Amino acid sequence: MLATACAGAADDAGTAVTTERAPVFRYPPAPDAPTADAADSAEVREAVDRLATRLLAGEIDGAALADLAELGDARHAWYVADLMRFFGPGENGNELVDAFEALTDTSIADDPDTERSVWLSSTNHLIAWDTPHYPEYRADKAGLFLLVEDRWEPFFSDADADIDWRYLSWGGVLIDDRELGDTDGCARGCIPALDDPAVTGAAGGDWYPDDAIVFGIVEGDEALAIPKNIAEIHEMFNLTLGDRRFGIPYCTLCGSAQAYRTDDAVAVGGADEVPVLRTSGLLSRSNKVMYDLRTQSVFDTFTGAAVSGPLQDEAIVLDETTVLRTTWGE
I need a labelling partner for 12 at 20 to 30 A (CA). Which of 22, 96, 138, 247 fits? Predict the structure, then answer.
């Protein structure tokens, strides 16, 4: 009876009717792949180098792509999937899908995500399979991504970074590298952090609807409510509350707001200055990648741990405090 009730519905007369569920898509078995530390052959490197050279002109070398696919190393499907992120439907898109399917010996046609994005489907296949990367993958990926935003170079150049490069993708915007307090916005197209914003006293907050969502933070005797609609525009705040310095990221894709006491990086972590958090324009499995403007160190947004740059060398982990999601009326 429980199974029947869950699978069905009722018409206006209360009679049980049957509804069909969409079939559940299951990823096929993972393709065979060499280990992550197995070196590429000379033929593979030659094909990738030809691809990289043509990318400088914003083009895909179809012959080089076909040669790479013919060599059949599933690890290089990560690089092909990265190319899909920047080359949409059309001749190049079809060539990339063909190369991905040849490298993995898998068709993605049955995946419902393919209708939305072949890049999404291909990447999700690789994540589901936990396909390893290859030793030169970071450098190859950097060569592609830096054509879009050369200011990401410090992230890719840190060979010791604790970043899984397979999961790094482009969020569709460029880096926010404005100085602290800059209010001019992003002429180049970034998500502009809001530094030390003006605030309204609680008694004067009638301009915000009671049923609208806020993110609440308390430090000492002070409390702050950040309106969700403002967080959706800026996605990052640097401010002082209760005599403490905070960095507050909000990831629209994850629906998560967090708050870190950034002055702890100086007080107990050994950083020279209080970090200024910014949005990089990159994502890691759809979670925003944030970094420190002053040292170019990348932080894991969910844990507050520095995963690259000087702050990683200092083993900095930002102290996180509670964020309450509620309504302004509550």
Answer: 22
